[in-house]
Amino acid sequence: xxxxxxxxxxxxxxxxxRPYVSETVWGGRRLAEEYGxxxxxxxxxxEAWVLSAHPKGxxxxxxxxxxxxxxxxxxxxxPAWFGPCQSAPSGAPFPLLIKxxxxxxxxxxxxxxxxxxxxxxxxEAGKTECWYIxxxxxxxxxxxxxxxxxxxxxxxxxxxxxxxxxxxxxxPVRAGDFFFLxxxxxxxxxxxxxxxxxxxxxxxxxRVYDYGRLQNGKPRGLHVAQAxxxxxxxxxxxxxxxxxxxxxxxxxxxxxxxxxxFDVSEVTLRADPYRGAAGETSxxxxxxxxxxxxxxxxxxxxxxxKGGSLLLPAASGPFAVSGRLRLLExxxxxxxxx
Length: 338
What we know:
The protein is mainly β.
């Protein structure tokens, strides 16, 4: 098994993580009230970055010898704990960012770039993402892509005259829905939606419409030129992912998406334990969406309850989950993207 550098030799063990929390103009308080996320003086908790090593905000290890260490620091000190990163060039970024998002109000209409966009900041990736809908108020919706293909000129004109909402496609949602969004899809999360997001490790967002809202008395900035460069100006292919089309190897295990960036599955425990293994190729992220139980790995047993995030290091071997839980399990693909 990989270990930390010689000055602090520690064998891998299951890591409980405290999220980085962000407050925004559209955020709510459900993550604090229902998922145990600490507000720490904030007015709301729009996003809880439950697995993050991003420079803007890292998750913090809360148990064991690495308690108090940020996931970003641990990744720099022991990249072999995280799988394919062990063979990545020095300074390569952490591959994923996983969030809980509480949209009390509508998010801006926005788009994310691909990895090859020349306008990206140094070290920043593009952003392909996926959403698992945890809850949705009656009438809640997403905006996904365009109703029909549009030209760059028509897109720009709609942004300029504030008619963009006439072009984008509204999609009603309910709990349990899942959406895969390749970079370039114009989108927005609507008010009343609570979701879990798995994405590339990026915080690059190009806003093109923000409903005229003010922040500190001023409109939030838009990024129209960049959005015109990166947007896919065509309808979103609904349904993007059909979970029934992905083979399920055992009861209670529902594969949601397999792509070159991440593999995501829903795991539902009722009576029997769920068993898996963290192999050489990837860490395993377990995010508790509902219920409570225990995770056993590396000779330790840790509690995991709704809102809790646990990382099992690569090559740490078999693990078992018991209790009544619904989990989002995320791993890197077996054959990492070149």
